[in-house]
Write a structure and sequence with these properties.
single chain, Rossmann fold, alpha/beta, 17% strand, five-stranded parallel beta sheet
């Protein structure tokens, strides 16, 4: 067994956030003890080519879209330009998502922390996201 764990470089949406989507996201992803990541975010980092060359996945928090539309458009545009996969996370408690954002994203998940991690790992491995991880599954 290898002692080395992959550390994922994630660019996470930060901006006007009246529902604390960012805080809730951080609680969820930090609950995954075996998942290591380095955070870059849109409040502390300039969206430069150098930054996107470091990033493994751009994480868009849909609950912040309404108040941060220009930021979302810039993130979508630059992520595509620099070939960084985009993970869109739904507004907590809602299934609805804008079709135009869904079409521009490489994966869309809800708030299940296992699904978030699975989507990030899948996108970084270069695989297409095909399974609806957070939809009711039969066991």
């Amino acid at each position: 067994m290898s002692d080395e764990k992959r550390v994922y470089n994630l660019l996470i949406t930060r901006g006007i956030d009246p529902d604390d989507q960012y805080g809730f996201y951080k609680e969820r992803i930090d609950s995954q003890e075996d998942f290591l990541y380095k955070e870059y975010n849109t409040m502390e980092n300039e969206l430069t080519e150098e930054l996107f060359n470091e990033i493994d996945v751009t994480v868009l928090l849909f609950g912040m879209y309404h108040d941060n539309q220009e930021l979302f458009e810039e993130l979508l545009s630059k992520s595509k330009k620099f070939n960084v996969p985009i993970l869109l996370i739904r507004f907590f408690g809602m299934e609805y998502i804008l079709k135009e954002l869904e079409e521009k994203s490489d994966a869309v998940v809800g708030w299940n922390p296992h699904c978030i991690v699975d989507a990030i790992e899948t996108l970084v491995n270069g695989d297409d996201w095909v399974k609806p991880c957070d939809v009711a599954e039969e066991f």
